[in-house]
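Reminder: ligand-aware prediction takes two inputs, not one.
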Amino acid sequence: REKLPLYNTVDDVIDLITRSNNIVVLGGAGISTSCGIPDFRSKDGIYAQLQKEGKYDLADPQDMFDKEYFLQDPSCFFSFAHSIFPSNFVPSPSHRFIKLLEEKDKLLRNYTQNIDTLEEAAGIKRVLHCHGSFAEAQCTTPGCGRRVLGSAIKDDIFAHNVPTCPDCAAREEAKKLQRAKAKKSKGGSLWDDNDDDDDDNAFPGLGVMKPCITFFGEKLSDDFDHCLLEDREKVDLLIVMGTSLKVAPVSELVGHLPHSTPVILINRTPVVHMAMDIQLLGDADIIVDHLCRRLGWTLPPPKPNTD
Ligand code: OAD
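Here is what comes back for the chain with 2'-O-acetyl adenosine-5-diphosphoribose:
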C-alpha cells in the first residue's frame, strides 16, 4: 500500500508515541540478538549458520522448522534444539521499552514472533506469541496430543534426545500386556509374532513430543486472528521492531491494520517490500534508548531471567 509522506523526522516519532494510547508492537528476532540469540536471516543468523555447518543434511535450512521434515526425522531438530532453548538470557533494552509502553498504558498488544519468552522475562503482560514458545510441548501421535510443560522435555533437549510421550508409552505397555495375555490364553498358536512389529510401525515417530512452537506447514493459533480483529478497531500506532517481515501470516498484520495507522520501523536493515511511514535504521537498543531520552522516560532496569 502507498503511504503519503506525513511523518519524516524523529520529532514526528516522538510526537506519534506521545499522542498514541493503543500501540501495537510487532517484534522479531532482531530485538533479542543483543541478548546473545541469533536472528534467522542475517548473515550470521541461524539459517546461515545451519548452511555453513552443513551437519544436518538439510536441503533448505528452513527445513529445521518444517513440520513434515520434523515428523520424518525428529532427531535432527532435537540435536539442534538446545541452541535455541530459552536459557538464562536477560531481556534487552528493546524488550524493556515495550514493557515501558505497557507501564505507560500505551501498549495495546505486543505481537511477537520470538520463541525465547524474553517478553515474559521483561514482565510484558499484553503479549501474543504468534509462533508459540517452548513453554509447552505436545505429542505428535494422531489422536493423542498430550500436552506437557516445556520444562518436562528440557533434559531431553539438552541431552539431544527425542522426548517421548508418557501417555503413548503407557498405552504401548498396556497393549503389549494385553497381547501377551491373549497369546497365553490362546496357547500362542494362532498369533503371528510379526503382529507386534506391524503394530509398532503403525505410526512412525510414535509418541514424539514437539515443542509448541509453530513450524512451517502449521497453522497459527486462532488467537492471532482474534486479537487482530479486536486490535484493528483500536490501534493508533504500529511499531515494527527487529523483524524482516518475511514470514506470513504474521507479516500480513501490517496490511490488516487500518490504512490510516502510522507505521514506524525500528530495524537494522530496511524493509522494502512493505510501506512504512518512518524507518529508524540501526541497532534497536540504541534507537529505543535515544527515543526514551527524547520522551523523558527511564527504561526499567534489566531483570535476570531466573527460569
Ligand atoms: P529475521 O532474522 O528474518 O529478521 C530479523 C531482523 O532483525 C533483520 O531484518 C535484521 O536486520 C534485524 N536485526 C538483527 N539484529 C538487530 C538489532 N540488534 N537491532 C535492530 N535490528 C536487528 O527474523 P524474524 O523476522 O523474527 O519462524 O523471523 C520471522 C520468523 O522466521 C521467525 O519467527 C522464525 C523464522 O523462520 C519460525 O521458525 C516459524
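The chain has twelve helices and nine strands. The mean pLDDT is 90. We will return to this case in the review session.
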